[in-house]
Amino acid sequence: GLYKTDSTFYALANNHGLMVKDLISGKEKLVQFRNPATRQLLNFERLTTIEADSLGKLWFASGGNIENNDVSHLISYNPKTQHSEIHPVTAPISAVQMGSSPDLWVAHVVNETSQLITRYDVRNSRMVEAWDLPENVSRINDIFPQDSNSLLLATDVGLYNFDLLQNTIHRIELHSNSQIQSTIFSIFKYDGKFFLAGRDGLFIYTPGQSAVNHISMADGLRNNIITAVFRENKDKYWLGTFYGVTLLNLKQNLILNYSVRDGLPENEFNLNSYFQDNSGFYLGYPDGVIKLDLR
User: Fold this and answer.
1) Exposed, middle or buried, 96 (CB in 10 Å: 0-12/13-18/19+)?
2) Across residues 104-132, what is the average pLDDT?
3) CA distances from 204 to 156, 161, 190, 207, 222 (A)
4) Nearest alpha-carbon partner for 135 in 178, 174, 179, 169
């Protein structure tokens, strides 16, 4: 998880909590959170994104190994007051995503074959709706609200559209061979297209078109595991990967890879650790955060 304001960086630290860095003074502090029932420190073994609501509160999840059904909590943190609220949930959390205010969408792993989607009202800090998915889509890694009644789900076995009103799931095929499954970590939307960061490369899905553009090491990427996608301008995008960053120019059919040999402090960039604002593109890596300098 990664989030930034004009003066402060916020990053989820593996097994610790929320790291807060004052960009003016350079001072850092670790904010830890406790189980409201046991008072034990919460586990941050599996890190989600950090989502910000319209009031400036940050939302993220704690949790350990989902496969072991470790307990998760939904956490809200107010940077202004430094006050936090811990919200117990019924099943381990695998993803959080802000939608249109005041909706926060949360994906849960109920067991090996069942998943749950819940919707929270962040203004009143309470869950307002829940949906048991009608079929097994494996672990949900990201949620992209298309409208009030439809969600795109990035999962361990592919991309799905979930119709909330009809309670139906439709798989969006990413390969010409429907038997092939690909893990999708994150969903980004630019220029009317969905850029899907996955384990097997980058997939570019355009609604209404049957063919999905798949870009992998066979096309010039140095690594197939994509962790983030940023838009510099139309047809020009930057990818965070497990081996450096990549410039992708779709118009010129150009791929340029950059690594520590080109000045990066690290080759491997974390999942769910990206942020973009008017000041630039930011990627989290095991020992810190870098800003991509595009000048």
Assistant:
1) buried
2) 94
3) 17, 15, 10, 10, 18
4) 169
